[in-house]
Amino acid sequence: MRLGPALIIVLELVVLSSSSAIVNVVNGQSTSNSPMGYNRCDILNGQSNASPMRLRCIVAPSDDAYVENLSPSKTFGDTPILIVEALPSIPSLRDYAYLKFDVSNAVPSQLVQSHAKPSDANLSMYVEWINFFYNASIQVHSVQNNSWDEHSITWNNQPDFDSNFAQNTIRMNDTWAYWNVTNETIRSLNGSEISFAVIPSKRSWKNQVWFASKEYPLDRGLRWPALDLTYVEPYLTILTPIPRLTINVDNSTFQTDAHGVFQAPFPWGDHHVTVPDAIPESNGTRIGFRSWSDNTTENDRVVTLGNNLTLSINYGKQYSLQTLSPYGSLTGSGWYFADSTANVSMQSTVVPFEGWLGLLGARHVFDHFVEACETSQPSCSVHMVGPEIVVAIWRDDYTISVLNASVAVGLATLVKLILRPQRKRRRRTR
């Protein structure tokens, strides 16, 4: 099996991994003999800052079968053809075809994991035979339930299909029929799988078409059904109120434009994005980060890009609150958004003196706040409409120390008086 040059670019330059086999291409179709080998992805253009990379992936069905109302319990998953018809016989005959595609067998894993949606999707089926007397109007409906398989699906257990559809009129044998199923694919792609029901139009008379299935034995898979998907590398758009704001994406630095907008394409997958937490202005004033538009409150985050993503950043004016106290622990200083409320609290309202005065009980006692707060209470609230300062005023309390000193002097005097007569007696004895 020979590696095509386009796929080498995918694997080596874009670092997009895929578990699918790589095959040669002839007239837009694969020359592999297996559905897995049929799948492939090709780069349509390289990436640049102005132009996102485009990736085209061709996917063969993992399951295809048709069901028939006159054989409601029979399976037709191993036949080389898919019959789609509606005949006004007695009883009426109806045949529907079902196709399921496992996108993970073709597209790089980053696209599957990031739930990327294609920008364009087309279903192709090869017409082996058509009733020449009547043109056939064939509809393609999306199917939400992917639990069916070609070995067990019957008319009785066929999954429901959506009412919306893509339609094409078929007029010739030995030709390709195409349906643009972009809307159906975007609406119904569930993880890595998508299913379609191909049915005859109810308004047409004698719709009879035989399509080649993936079991078609000739032409080495050139007539198999195929889902042709085009993916466009997603744009990350960040909207801010700040022009020339520095933004970091995956350790690369960018800037918003004069309107505060940043936009660039990035590969599918996870990306590390950081915006400034704060932007200085004048003394005591700055612009502070609030949140992203998806309610993420961290300025440093990871975003997953599977499809175009637009995020707004909410910035706001912030003012500083400065708290000053010669003693104790005063909480509440910091940055606050304009018109918010800051709470200031003195944690310790009494602090002992240092040294021997402290041992005697002298202490500093919180008295009141001044500046932004005017209260004798040890806590207060500040309405932040600009830079603010709160100063704690203390007074010195010597009451306990004087009392302790008086007690000490009294005890010393008492001891002296007690010991004095004893000394006189000792002298007389001598």
Polypeptide structure, described:
The chain has 430 residues and is mainly β. It folds into 4 domains: 5-232, no CATH class; 235-317, Sandwich (Immunoglobulin-like), CATH 2.60.40; 325-397; 405-430. It has 6 helices and 30 strands. The strands form 5 sheets. Strands 3, 4, 5, 6, 7, 8, 9, 10, 11, 12, 13 and 14 form a 12-stranded antiparallel sheet that branches. Strands 15, 18, 20, 21, 23, 25, 27, 28 and 30 form a 9-stranded mixed sheet that branches. The protein has a 4-stranded antiparallel sheet with strand order 17-16-19-22. A hairpin with a 5-residue loop joins β6 and β7. 33% of the residues are buried. Mean pLDDT is 84; it is low at 1-33.
